[in-house]
Design a protein that fits this description.
Elements: H1 2-12, E1 16-20, E2 39-44, E3 47-52, H2 53-56, H3 65-97, H4 103-121, E4 124-129, H5 136-144, E5 160-166, E6 172-174, E7 182-183, H6 187-190, E8 204-210, H7 215-218, E9 221-225, H8 235-243, E10 248-254, H9 261-273, E11 278-284, H10 296-314, H11 320-324, E12 327-329, H12 332-339, H13 355-463, H14 465-470, H15 482-528, H16 532-541, H17 553-556, H18 572-578, H19 582-598, H20 601-615, H21 622-642, H22 645-749
Helix pairs in contact: 3-4, 3-13, 3-22, 4-13, 5-12, 8-9, 13-15, 13-22, 15-16, 15-22, 18-19
Length: 750
Amino acid sequence: MSRSLYKQSSLDSPGLSYHARGPEDVDSPPEKPVQLNRSLTVSGPRGSITGSRTLLRARDSNSPLKRFTRAKQSISNAFGLVRNRLVEAQSFMMLSRQTSECPPLTVLLDRTRGIEDILSRDHMKVAFFGRTSNGKSTAINALLRDKVLPAGIGHTTNCFCSVIGAEGEEGYVLSPDSQERQNVKNVKQLAHSLHKEHLDPSSMLQVYWPMTKCHLLKDDVELMDSPGIDMDPDMDQWINNHCLDADVFVLVSNAESTLMRAEKQFFHRVSERLSKPNIFILNNRWDCSAQEPEMMEEVKEQHLKCDIAFLCHQLKVADERTAKNRVFFVSAKEVLQVRTQGQQIPEGKGMPDGWKARLMEFERFEQLFKECVSSSAIRTKFEHHHKQGSEVVEDLESLLVQEETQIQQSNDTVSAQLSGSWQRKAALQDQGSQLREYGQQVISTTATAVEQKVAVAMRDIEGQLLPIVDGFRGVNFDPSHCATYKEGLCEWVDGQLVKELGKVGGASLGAMHDQAQQKLIDTYQSLLQLPGDKLSRFQQLVRPPQLSYVLKCSDLTEDFKEDLNFHFSLGLGRVAKILNFGSWFDSLSPQLSTLWTIVPVEYVVPGLLLLGGALLPRFLSWRLLVPSLAVYGGIYAYERLTWTERSKEQAIKSQFVRHMRSKVSTQIRATSNVYTRQLSGNLGLLLEGLNGSLETCQQEENGHIAQLTQEQTRLTQLGDKGRKLKNAVHLLRSDFEMFKEDYLDDADSA
């Protein structure tokens, strides 16, 4: 059994060779050693081990711990890339969504930064446990090659102590209740059970020791010392607080006794909480075997069987082959003494027999635990981080795929809108000119129809003059006061004409105006597709004009001269007109007028009758002439007798109507033109407003096209950027897969 252990030492330690010796050599004296500063020969009852001093100290470049360092650097770099991609993705998605935050990526970024923070603090943790005064602190000091932790007789370490590498040449200590750096020498007081201020046994004292003084710390190894487990501790609290992240446990037992119940009970608790923890057993104080060399192998075999049974059958954390390489027989005190005395190893003065073999056994323990802790730490520290990193990459890639799909959908939507806007712009340009021509045509057609309507309406009003004048009863007629009568008549006619005008034209003309207005609005609305209230506001602003016919009869009748003289209906003028001698008689009118001024008509007519009576008998018979003259005279007498004040009033009214009709015809044309211009002006304003809306729509469409083009460019650029970012994120998968192949799979196989 021991032969195999020593053989394993030669295999695991570079530069070591094993020289087997038979049982007859057990009591033979050791061979003469050579100079220890050049080579080292260890002799014992089982044989001798010879090796180079420089090769016993594994160089950093060949240390198994470097694998953990490389793995840590590799996965840290991978998470650094993930963080960079997350920052880029966050900026990209905020730009894409045009928001100031992106909660899903913020969660992933916080998660990644948290993992990076944990990685920066991740160490290969080696936890030392054992009963009081078994040499836990001394074993750690031996690994540190200096007396850092308090060690001595009896119960020494009062709390947990974590030794971590520190930059620089000076170490320091951080107490549990303060972050103030204290001198590293204070640890021997703070952690000592005899110190006046006792720390809680479950508290942690952090010791930062210069990495330049210990290659273990330089390679991210954390060494944790603990109080004695036989001090009735709260084991569950210890395990929860300090053991769950440990990669290797070192049970430091006393070689002068077998494993005690407290030690076994504690590691049973550890095994229940952790899946197959890596446990090394250091049978410390093996230097006591030098006092009874004849019993050394038997005792060693007894301890070895007991320890292997504990690991294999009780804890079930290792098979028998592995367990054999997890049990060591050392003297930490001797190793510390040798390592603190500088380059020259003493030639045995004051050292028990076999100390060199125990030194080599400790170095074999160092080598094996380095390999174990590196493999275990890579798996325990980084396997979960690898899984989390892969999940973050997968989630990020999924978010980018969703965002890429959303961007593509938005780009398609914008492209469709842009195509529609170009078509609408073309329609506005092509149909806009047609609409303008159509609007002018509608106004022209409506103006012509209204002009005709107004003309008809005004002629109807002209036809109402006679009934209106006949209906005047306001003033008693007095021929001597004709001016007063005419004033009253003018006022009456003005009022009645205004009433008739309102009856004839208002509603129908307004309907024509509104119809034309609505036709224009509907036509523009069909093209512009604007909200109904946006164009109808023009309809509210542009109202139909009112047909105003201001007849100032006093102005129109300024040149009106009434004729109240009696005029016989069968007088010479009338007869001349009947006999178609009107033109001849009219030529005589000036002479007759002169005659009438000299001789009154009352005398002229009877004289003419007498003259006619004297002359006509020569041409007509008396039987025909007398009745004719009687009738003619009777008619004259009747008309002359009925030429009263009433007849004179009727005559002045008839003369007034004839005079007004001659004046009103001109006014009708002027009124019709004015109303038509007003209506055309109103519709023109409406058309101008509609054309303004058309131009506004064209400008808005141009602006919309520019905006959509800009948005399309933005989405296209975002799509390209998103695809590049997605490809970069996809490459992160291969980084994590390579990490798994290089470190996790190899660790499992190891």
